[in-house]
Amino acid sequence: MATWFSYEYSTDIAATRHFYGELVGLEQVWDTADDIAFVHDCVQLTFHRVDSVEQPDDWAHQPGWADGQLPDAPATRPVRSVSIALPPAAFRDAVARLRAAGVKTLRPEPFWVGYWSFVVQDPNRLTVELTDPNSPPP
């Protein structure tokens, strides 16, 4: 199996560790003072500590929203984002943990756009779409 790597930046490694590890539930595979990495299936998501990084106040463009699947989609702009597909139970657990932690959400509940979607912002305001592509529609 091939591994695909994504490299991002964080101004707060501890907050990033908590968000992606404890709240989203990804497996942590690397942790130093300046870098942290998580693996999910064949993807490794790595964050390097920096003193500053662009932190947009609005949401990143997500392709499904532009196709009319989310009629009341918010205004978006071309900034970084990630989408993480989770099995149904892991998706429900992550949604519950993120909501309990008070993380900024696009909508308070998961919504259907051809799959279940729950969109949040990470500690650096990166748009993160958690998805459950396996559960049936409402």
UniProtKB/TrEMBL annotation:
This one is known as: Catechol 2,3-dioxygenase-like lactoylglutathione lyase family enzyme
What Gene3D superfamilies does the record point to?
Answer: 2,3-Dihydroxybiphenyl 1,2-Dioxygenase, domain 1
Q: Which Pfam families does the record associate with it?
A: Glyoxalase (PF00903)
Region annotation (Disordered) ranges: 58-77
Q: Residues in domain Glyoxalase/fosfomycin resistance/dioxygenase?
A: 11-130
Q: Which molecular-function annotations from GO does this UniProt entry contain? A: dioxygenase activity; lyase activity
- Lyase in keyword set: yes
- What organism does the UniProt record list as the source? Flexivirga oryzae
Identify the keywords attached in UniProt to this record, alphabetized.
Answer: Dioxygenase, Lyase, Oxidoreductase
Q: What is the lineage of its organism?
A: Bacteria, Bacillati, Actinomycetota, Actinomycetes, Micrococcales
